[in-house]
Amino acid sequence: MLQISDNLKHVREKIAKAASKVGRNPQDIQLVAVSKTVDIKRIKQAIEVGATILGENYIQEARRKIEELGQDVRWDFIGHLQSNKVKYAVDLFEMIHSVDRLSLAQEINRAAEKKKKEVRILIQVNISGEEAKSGIDPGGVISLVREIASLPNLSMEGLMTMPPYFDDPEDARPYFTSLRELRNTILMENIEGISLKELSMGMSGDVEVAIEEGSTLVRVCSAIFGERNLTTS
Question: Is the pTM of this model over 0.85?
Answer without folding.
Answer: yes
